[in-house]
């Protein structure tokens, strides 16, 4: 039995003090995150109202004006949540590959390059990674995300997505032809600037889905992407490129984004959305964020649909190898900045 010094505090007092500190820390984070996120939620709600009751009715009569207004509203909402993530909560995002992209217009009044964007999908926080690149390229408000068609029935949110010309699709591209025509009309006929973004794996990565991917690829004689990736759905990508290649000459490129995370020594462990808005210092908490971009000219892509699908498969093989390189860097204790 150990001997307790008379100067040592009683064990119950030490336990109480530890519990109290933990409770105060939780209370502080709750109050702080509420004070930060409530104004943003109000901003989001007001933007949805304007999208639903101003932009949506304007679209049939003044489609370009409605599109520009919806882009401005979307940019304000997305920039605000990005500011919370990177500035208020100190998330440091490493953006690699910017030298692959064309320079922005000098006067800053024009949009950056319109492009089809594909990326791997790990967590909700992937949106921050894509938005960081979009901000740097002057295209944040022009981002249009492929989203689940069920969202269009959500009051205000669904109407806002519809007003913004978001592609609301199922996972059956044959059934989505009419929706694609609606979305692509503005891009092809009115030459609207756009960053058309798709998480090509169609779902977030999990170990169980990874195992299913390996089984499916083996059964269908498809290449298995290395590491922390799923097999990319090629039909949607092929349909998008084929529809825009000749009809939208201002959409000049495909941007292939590789998204990676780490928490301490744990690779590809992204924070949840709740963590991203409640932790006051994400760098101090051990999080790393990384996004790499490769640019491919659409005119250089295969015109044959089967070969175009294989082209996307090849990108996922390269993406997996890139992620494996990051994992090895992490295990060796090397800085990811060196990959820039």
How many DSSP-defined strands?
Answer: 9
> What fraction, in percent, of the residue positions are helical?
40-55%
CATH topology annotation: Glycerol-3-phosphate (1)-acyltransferase
- What share of residues are in beta strands? 5-15%
Number of helices: 9
Largest pleated sheet: 7 strands, mixed
Name the average pLDDT.
Answer: 88
CATH C-level label: Alpha Beta
Distance between the termini: 57 Å
Give me the secondary-structure category: alpha/beta
CATH architectural designation: 3-Layer(aba) Sandwich
- Provide the domain count: 1
Radius of gyration: 23 Å
**Helix-strand sequence:** HHEEHEEHEHEHHEEHEH
Given as residue ranges, the uncertain stretches (5+ residues, pLDDT < 50) are none
Shape type? globular
Organism: Polychaeton citri CBS 116435
GO molecular function, one term: 1-acylglycerol-3-phosphate O-acyltransferase activity
Keywords: Acyltransferase, Transferase
Protein name: Phospholipid/glycerol acyltransferase domain-containing protein
């Amino acid at each position: 039995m150990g001997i307790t010094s008379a100067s040592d505090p009683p064990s119950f007092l030490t336990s109480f003090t530890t519990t109290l500190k933990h409770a105060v820390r939780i209370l502080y984070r709750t109050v702080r995150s509420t004070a930060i996120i409530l104004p943003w939620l109000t901003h989001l709600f007001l933007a949805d109202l304007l999208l639903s009751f101003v932009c949506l009715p304007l679209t049939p009569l003044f489609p370009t004006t409605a599109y520009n207004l919806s882009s401005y509203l979307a940019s304000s909402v997305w920039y605000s949540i990005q500011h919370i993530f990177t500035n208020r909560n100190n998330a440091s995002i490493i953006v690699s590959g910017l030298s692959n992209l064309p320079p922005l217009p000098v006067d800053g009044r024009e949009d950056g390059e319109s492009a089809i964007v594909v990326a791997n999908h790990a967590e909700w926080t992937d949106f921050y990674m894509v938005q960081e690149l979009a901000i740097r390229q002057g295209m944040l408000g022009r981002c249009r995300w492929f989203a689940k068609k069920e969202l269009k029935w959500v009051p205000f949110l669904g109407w806002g997505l519809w007003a913004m010309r978001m592609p609301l699709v199922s996972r059956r591209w044959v059934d989505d032809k009419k929706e694609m025509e609606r979305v692509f009309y503005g891009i092809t006929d009115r030459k609207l600037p756009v960053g058309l973004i798709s998480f090509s794996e169609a779902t977030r990565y999990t170990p169980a889905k990874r195992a299913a991917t390996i089984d499916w690829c083996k059964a269908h004689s498809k290449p298995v992407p290395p590491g922390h990736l799923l097999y990319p759905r090629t039909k949607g990508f092929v349909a998008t490129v084929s529809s825009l290649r000749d009809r939208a000459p201002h959409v000049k490129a495909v941007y292939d984004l590789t998204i990676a995370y780490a928490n301490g020594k744990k690779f590809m462990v992204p924070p949840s959305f709740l963590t991203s808005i409640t932790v006051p210092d994400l760098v101090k908490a051990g999080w790393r964020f990384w996004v790499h971009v490769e640019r491919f000219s659409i005119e250089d892509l295969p015109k044959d649909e089967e070969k175009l699908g294989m082209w996307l498969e090849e990108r996922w093989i390269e993406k997996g190898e890139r992620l494996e390189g990051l994992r090895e860097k992490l295990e060796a204790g090397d800085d990811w900045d060196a990959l820039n």
